[in-house]
Amino acid sequence: MTEKDVVERLEEIVGKKNVQADKIGLTSYGYDATLLSGVGMATVFPLSTEHVVKLVKLANEAGFTLIPRGAGTNLSGGTIPDGRCVTVNFSRMKKILDIDTENFVAVVEPGLVNFDLQAELEKKGFYYPPDPASYKATTLGGNLAECSGGPRCFKYGVTRDYILGLEVVLPDGKVIQTGGRNFNSEPGYDLTRILVGSEGTLALLTKIFLRILPLPAAKKTMLAIYNQVEDASQTVSDIVAAGIVPTTLEMMDNLLINTAEDATGAGLPRDAGALLIIEIDGHPEDMDEQVETIAGICKKARVREFKMARTAAEVDQLWLARRVVIGSVARRRPSYSLQDITVPRSMFPNMVSGILQIAKERNLEVGILAHAGDGNMHPLVLFDQRIEEEVERVHLAEKDICALALELGGTLSGEHGIGLLKKKYLTLEFSPVAMACFAKIKNSFDPRHLLNPGKIMNL
Amino acid sequence: MSNETVNRIKGLVGEGNVVDSPSAMARYLKGQGRPLAVAMPGNTAEVAEIVKLANEEGLKIAVGGRVVESRGLDGGLALVMSRMNQVLEIDHANLTATVQPGLAHTEFSRILAEQNLVFPPEPNVPKTGSVGGCFALGEADSQAFQYMPVRTYLLGYEMVLPNGDILEVGNKCIKNVSGYDLIHFAVGSRGTLGIFTRLLVKLLPPPAVKMALVADFASLPKACQAMATLIRRRIFPTRLNLLNPALAAGIDPGSKGNLVMVDLTGFKNSTELLAEEIAGIFHLAGSSEVQAVKEAEGYAKLWQGWLDLRGELNTTWAERVIDFNVGPMKLAAALQALTEITGDLGAYPGLVAEGLLGRVRLLLPAAGEREEMAVKVNALAMSFGGNVSGNFGSKLVCRAYNDAEMWEGIESLLGQIRRQFDPKGILAPGVSL
Ligand SMILES: Cc1cc2nc3c(=O)[nH]c(=O)nc-3n(C[C@H](O)[C@H](O)[C@H](O)COP(=O)(O)OP(=O)(O)OC[C@H]3O[C@@H](n4cnc5c(N)ncnc54)[C@H](O)[C@@H]3O)c2cc1C
C-alpha cells in the first residue's frame, strides 16, 4: 500500500479532519520534550475504541507501525516516529466517563489531561494522587505508559499504584479489559501492571480505571534552608525514620537556588547549599505534633532557616522557587538536559557529590533537583545546543550519571522511562537473562513489533 | 520419574533433603496429586540445577513455602523452600529487607517487630505461609485501602526461571521505571513464571498507636449501613471488616450477632478522636455493644483471630468460598440482593466483608454448588459494578457481555506469556490461568 493509500484509508476510518499528513502536521508530532525528532507518514486522532481497532487492523494489513502519543511531553524519546509509521494521537479521546467518589473510582479516556481530571475531582473534594510537574499538559495515557511520578508520590505512590483496570486494544486488534474497578479483579497475571510503564510498546490504551482519593483534611508546608546538601539529606532520613511520611520532600541545590533567585528575587540566600520543601497532610489534629517533630529534626541537622507557611499565600511563596526552577536555568544557558535517576535514600549524599564531581570533570554546569524522599534525582545539565563539542560532553556526563547511579545500587529511570534515550544503557542495569524476559513480554503482546518499535529495546 | 531421577536429585540437594516415601511426603503436600518426591533445596544454585534437570527429564515442579499444592503433580517433584528461610539483611536507612522465600511470614513479622519495623501484608495462612508465598499469591488484603496491595511491598527479587536461568531485578529504590515492570508483574503469578529464591521487600516504621473497636450488630443491613456512614464521613480506618454470626463466634465467643472489626493505626490524637467518633456512629446505627480494645495483648489476639480466619478461608474452606467485589458503598445493597440467592445471611455458614475494599467472601454450605453459585453471584456483583474475582470471574464477565472475543483475547495472551516463559510447561502444573 502506498503512503497515499494509507492516508486515504486512515481518513475513511476517522474522518478527514482527524488525519494530518501534511508537512506541518508531520513536524508538529515528530518531536517530544527531548532534543530528538523524526518523521512518519501521518498522525491520526482516533475518537473511539472502535477507531483504534480499525487502525490496528489497517496497520497489520498494510504493514506499517503505530506510535502512540499523548501530549508529547515525555523526556525519553518515547513518541518519536521513524519511517513507515503512523502516530496515533490520543488527545481527542479525552472524555471523563465516570467519577464515582463513593467507591473511589474514575473512568477516563487516555487522552484526558491530568489537570482536567484534577479540576473535576476537586469540585467533589477528591483528587488523583500522581501529579507529574507537567500535569497541566500531560495525558493520563502518557502518565500511565511512563508510570509517571511527581512531588507528592513519596507518600502516595506513583501512577502504578492508582491504576485499577484498563481497556486496551492489542496489536492484533482484539479488545480486552484488564483488572476492573477494584484491587482484586485481575485474571491470571497482573496484566495491568505490565502495561503500566510499557511506554506504548505492548498495547494501545483506550480506557483507564483510576483510583481516586478524598482531598486530605489538612496540609502543612515548610521550607528548610541548609548550608550543606548533607544536612538536607540527613533531615530526610530522620523524618522517615521518625515514622512521618511527608507528601513532599523536594530538594534544590546551590546552583538552582541561585537561578531561581535570579528569576524571582524572592530573597533566598545565595550561599545556601540546599533547600528542602517539606509538605505533610492528614488529620488536622496530627499536624502540630508532626511539624514540631520535623522542626526538631531540621534543627538537629543544622538548618539555617526554617519556615512554616501560615496562609495559602505563604504556601505559594514557599513553592515559588521550586515552580520556576526548571524555566529559570534558561537565563544561565539556552538548553538543559533533564536527567532522571534514582538511588537508595542512604546513597543520596554520595550521588549528589558524585554528580558535582562529574560536572567538574566534564566542565559543565549541573543543577540538582530531587524528590529527595525517594532518592529520585533530576540533575539539570546546562549547555548550548549550538556548540557541538559541548553537546558531546553532555552525553558523556549523562552516561557517567547513569553509571554512577547503578554503581550506588540505583536505577536508570525513576519516572521518565527509557524510550530511545536510555535504551543504550539498559544492559548496564539488566543482565542478558532480564533482557530476554523483556523480549518475552514484548513478544507475547506484540509478536509482529507493530507498536512503538525500537523504544525501550531493539528486538 | 524414575528412581534414578530421585537419586540425581538427592545428589543435588543431599540425601537428607529429599523425601520420597508417601507417608513422609504427606506433611508437605496438599491436594490429591502424587509426586514422586519432595525436595528441600538449600540455595539458589540447587534450585537452578533441579530446574535444569526437570527440563532434561520433562519433570513437573510445584513450589511451596512449607506445603505444596500437589494438583497436577503426579510423578513430578514438590519443592519445599523451608530451608531457604534466612533474613539476609535488614536495612534501616532505606527501610528494606532482603529475605529468602521460605522464611515464614509470621516469623518475619516477629523479627521485624524486635527491630521496630513492620512488613504490612497479612499472611495468607498464618501457620504455613511464607514470604515467597505471600508474593506468589499477591492478593490485596483487608488493609489495602491504607497500606496498598501486597505488590507495593516488593522492590526486587532473584528468581529461577523455568529454563533454569537466574533472573535478578529490582533495587532499593521505590521509584523505578527502568525496563518492563517484571517486579510487580511477578506478584500473583502463583509460581508459573519462576521460583523466587530471594526477595527484596519494603518495610515501614510502626504506627505511633494501634487500637481496635469491635461492634456487635444484630442486623446485618444495619452493620453495613454503619460502615457506609464511616465512608460517607470520610473516616477510613486501617481495617473495616464484617463477619456474620457463624464466623463472628470464632473470633469473639461472647458475640451474639454480626461483628464489625475496626482497626485504627496512626498518630495518637487523630486515632483517639476517630475511635470515639466511630463508636458513636456504631451506637447510633444500632450496635448493641461497642468494645474498644486498646491494650497490646487484646489487640494482638483480636487480629490474630482475624488472620486465622483468613487462613481458614484460604485453605480448609477454599473450595467452598466465592470471592467477589463491589464498590465499598454498594456493599449494603449488594448483600441485601445476595439474600435472594442465599437466604438469610445471618444464618449462612459464613460471610466476610472487607468494608473499605467492597470485597466479600461467601462461605458456601458445600463445595459442590460453587460453580453454579458463582455464576449467579457474578451476575449480581456485575449489577453493582463488580465481579467474582480471579480468572473464573473474568471469564464470567466476558460471558455475561457475550464477548467471546474478549475472553479469547485474554486467554490467549495469558497462555502466550506463560509459554514464552515456560515453553515446556514445567512449573506449577496445578495452576490454570
Ligand atoms: C517540564 C516537564 C516536567 C515534567 N515533570 C515530570 C514529573 O514531575 N514526573 C514525571 O514522571 N514526568 C515528568 N515529565 C515527563 C512527562 O511529562 C511524563 O512522562 C508524562 O507522563 C508524559 O505524558 P504525555 O501525555 O505527554 O505522553 P507522551 O509524551 O505523548 O507519551 C509518553 C509515552 O506514552 C505512550 N502513550 C501515550 N498515550 C498512549 C496510549 N493511549 N496508549 C498507549 N501508549 C500511549 C507513548 O507512546 C509514549 O511512549 C515532565 C516533562 C516536562 C517537559
Notes on the structure:
The complex is a heterodimer of chains A (459) and B (433). Chain A has helices spanning 3-14, 23-28, 49-62, 114-123, 140-146, 153-156, 191-195, 229-241, 254-264, 284-300, 312-328, 348-361, 388-407, 426-429, 432-445; strands at 19-20, 42-44, 65-69, 85-89, 96-100, 105-108, 126-127, 163-169, 175-179, 204-211, 213-214, 218-226, 248-253, 274-282, 305-308, 335-338, 341-342, 365-371, 376-383. Chain A is α+β, with helices and mostly antiparallel strands and 459 residues long. In chain A, strand 8 (163-169) and strand 9 (175-179) form a beta hairpin. In chain A, helix 9 crosses helix 11 (312-328) and helix 12 packs antiparallel against helix 13. Chain A is globular. Chain A starts with a helix and ends in a 14-residue tail after the last helix. The mean pLDDT of chain A is 95. Chain B folds into four domains: 2-80, Uridine Diphospho-n-acetylenolpyruvylglucosamine Reductase, domain 2, CATH 3.30.43; 87-202, Uridine Diphospho-n-acetylenolpyruvylglucosamine Reductase, domain 3, CATH 3.30.465.10; 207-231 and 239-306, Alpha-Beta Plaits, CATH 3.30.70; 317-416, Alpha-Beta Plaits (2-Layer Sandwich), CATH 3.30.70. In chain B, a hairpin with a 5-residue loop joins strand 9 (154-160) and strand 10 (166-170). The model of chain B has no long low-confidence stretch (mean pLDDT 94). Classes of the chains: A alpha+beta (459), B alpha+beta (433). Flavin-adenine dinucleotide binds at residues 32-33, 68-75, 78-79, 90, 110, 132-134, 138-139, 141-143, 145-146, 148-150, 199-200, 204-205, 326, 415-416, 452 of chain A. Flavin-adenine dinucleotide (FAD) is lined by residues 32-33, 68-75, 78-79, 90, 110, 132-134, 138-139, 141-143, 145-146, 148-150, 199-200, 204-205, 326, 415-416, 452 of chain A.
